[in-house]
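Record type: ASSEMBLY
Status: queued
Input:
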Amino acid sequence: MKHLNLIVHTVAAWLATLLIVFPLIWLVITAFKTEQQAIAIPPELFFTPTLESFAEVNLRSDYLHFARNSVITSVVSTILGLAIAAPAAYSMAFFRTKKTRDILMWMLSTKMMPAVGALVPIYVLAQTAGLLDSLTALIVVFTLSNLPIMVWMLYSGFKDIPGDILEAARMDGATLFGEFKHVIRPLAMGTLSSTALLCLVLSWNEAFWSLNLGSSKAGTLATLIASYSSPEGLFWAKLSAASLMAIAPIVIVGWFSQKQLVQGLTFGAVK
Amino acid sequence: MNRTLPRLLMAPAVVTLFLWMIVPLLMSIYFSAVRYNLMQPGDKDFIGLANFEYFVTDPDFGPSVLNTLMLLGSVIAITVILGVALALLVNEAFPGRGIVRVLLISPFFVMPTANALLWKHMMMNPVYGVLSQVAIFFGIEPVDWLTDHPLFSVIVMVAWQWLPFACLIFITSLQSLDRDQMEAAGMDGANPFQKFWFLTLPHLGRPIAVVVMIEMIFLMSVFAEIFTTTSGGPGNASTNVAFLIFKQALLNFDVGVASAGALFAVVLANVAAVFLIRMIGKNLD
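Status: finished
Output:
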């Protein structure tokens, strides 16, 4: 009886999972088909895989240009974000005052503003500054919109570092820089890296600002994929290949850091 | 310890976030009170609340508010109910549980534009899509999802993305469920349903509240999925408030009306935010 239960349970769990992940599995399969095979009726399940679509995407839609923009915007905004958020989180975690809590709450509240509420002003500002369709504008916007989450994640990580250790370091004459380098950094490496990863994922997948502020010159992979929405012709193999190349890096990053990422997104409210 | 250094360390974050919040807000308030269309250069005359009146009396306004709430409510309901069910299924040990957990979270990391086109083309295409093929296999008339049920299609895409998120949070929370208590309840003759209702569900109360709130923030302004698939149509059938503001701003170039709409959206979001902030604030220390 117990045996039967386990079998039923296993089958049910696997079936549910495969059903949910099916669209992604289908995407991967289609990416290795030719365009004819991709729209064959009934769908072909056995075929010789080809890299044709990947080559085509690279050549025709200039995949590398968009990939480069995605890498630059997400990496630079992550570094910039860490540089601004880490000192603030450090200060709030180790020099708490009565106001700390209010400041944290206020920062969180800025994240709750819907992006579309700022669309017009940011668009007008970018236009006035001649920064429409520029990587600079995207980097600034990504950094600012991720900043509250970064401060929060870093703060909740730093908070768990015992203050006595810092006290001892200070007694031994450590400077602020030394304290950060020799005491905080080793202890907070986990927090720092998961915060950086979350920021990378969010920036990489960001679509609202990328679609509205940068389309061609500063287009990211999210906008490249969006350009496949045109109804003329069915280029599913290419769409799949492009999508696969765009999502694979970040999905893999996600696999390794899922728990921290989800905790970060809930601002540490679920442990 | 003097207070200068901590303040100095905090300053960059506080100042940039303050600007990020206040500048767009002030600009929106100003734009919303003047006549300002990018296509009609000229003086920005003060016109009071006319932009608000225009935005609110727009025939698309009512439906877009309704669509926003439908989208929000449906996705939250789907992700919470299925998320709890899935989490319970994956919580017990079985062969391959580790792999299942990793696979399950994948859709959450797919960028919205790729998610939308994957569903639009490969899943929901009325002729070649997988769903149509399955329907034909079972002898059912295939459905043209995006034309006939545009809002529902968008709901499916967004729910597919957020279900893994909800599920993972519930799984995390289930791990801290008191096993002894569960066993004791079993000894006392509680059936699985009673155990779920009186022990598991109350334990999940907090994570469910968190999921609802977080999804409210992110789903209030769903944009990319609508932009890449239905463009808000047919008609206004899948237009939400975020897309309506986008249409006014970047398709009609009417900065004034779009700003009025933006202020409306900000107020709407703040109502939700107040609850979340209170909840998170409670267990900050």
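Annotation: Residues 63-226+247-265 of chain A form a domain with the MetI-like fold fold (CATH 1.10.3720.10).
Annotation: The two ends of chain A are 35 Å apart (CA to CA).
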